[in-house]
Write a structure and sequence with these properties.
The complex is a heterodimer of chains A (about 110) and B (about 120). Chain A has about 110 residues and is mainly β. Chain A is about 0% helix and about 55% strand. Chain A has no helices and eleven strands. In chain A, the strands form two sheets. In chain A, strands 2, 4, 5, 6, 9, 10 and 11 form a seven-stranded mixed β-sheet that branches. Chain A has a four-stranded antiparallel β-sheet with strand order 1-3-8-7, with no helix packed on it. By secondary structure, chain B is mostly beta strands. In chain B, about 0% of the residues lie in helices and about 50% in strands. Chain B contains no helices and twelve strands. In chain B, strands 2, 5, 6, 10, 11 and 12 form a six-stranded mixed β-sheet that branches. Chain B is globular and about 45 Å long. The relative contact order of chain B is 0.34. The chains are: A mainly beta (about 110), B mainly beta (about 120). At the A-B interface, β4, β5, β9 and β10 of A face β6, β10 and β11 of B.
């Protein structure tokens, strides 16, 4: 079974631009969660989508948004990029009930210059 | 809100020896899950072991075992017969067992484990 895939793996953007990251979950998984990992703040939960609906949201500004498609693939978007948005963005997928395991993708390394 | 604390930023252990990584957490919930994740230099987050709070028996996965003390809100990871491939950042994480399917993981700050050959 293929694992969670994230594209692109690396990205360099300029302040003020916007960016879209993609996450394809494991086949059959309906939940996709996104996390931001930085040296200063550690791993922080961004949001979770289940069956195309945002089910939970972390404490991030409105510049961070996401969506999920009918095939469970998810995208997250960051508008008006700031230097502090430089991070590793991880997504995780699961069947969507709390007893189920979450599996992480390899991450997208975003650098904002 | 739940918090997870890992008080050991770095640990090292001789190959083939045993090491224990510490984790404490704070929650007002009675039903939850606890996890240890491993993040090697590749940055891929890998689940090592999980513990359901309602289970008194400590979870074990091959060389990895936990010491779960619910009353003390403590969840330590023991790695036996340490191997070079165990070198990684280890994160302790908490997840609510809400009936509504709360997938949010709350992570600790991590412990960097070095294996000495």
């Amino acid at each position: 079974k293929a694992g969670v895939t994230q594209t692109p793996r690396y990205l360099i953007k300029t302040r003020g631009q916007q960016v879209t990251l993609s996450c394809s979950p494991i086949s059959g998984h309906r939940s996709v969660s996104w996390y931001q990992q930085t040296p200063g703040q550690g791993l922080q939960f961004l949001f979770e989508y289940f069956s195309e609906t945002q089910r939970n949201k972390g404490n991030f500004p409105g510049r961070f948004s996401g969506r999920q498609f009918s095939n469970s693939r998810s995208e997250m978007n960051v508008s008006t990029l700031e230097l502090g948005d430089s991070a590793l963005y991880l997504c995780a997928s699961s069947f969507g009930a709390s007893r189920h395991e979450q599996y992480f993708g390899p991450g997208t390394r975003l650098t904002v210059t | 809100a739940q918090t997870v604390t890992q008080s050991q930023p770095e640990m090292s252990v001789q190959e083939a020896e045993t090491v224990t990584l510490s984790c404490t957490y704070d929650t007002s919930e009675s039903d939850y899950y606890l996890f240890w994740y491993k993040q090697p230099p590749s940055r891929q987050m890998i689940l090592v072991i999980r513990q359901e709070a309602y289970k008194q028996q400590n979870a074990t996965e091959n060389r990895f075992s936990v010491n779960f003390q619910k009353a003390a809100k403590s969840f330590s990871l023991k790695i036996s017969d340490s191997q070079l491939g165990d070198a990684a950042m280890y994160f302790c994480a908490y997840r609510s067992a809400s009936n509504f399917g709360n997938e949010k993981l709350t992570f600790g700050t991590g412990t960097r484990l070095t294996i000495i050959p």
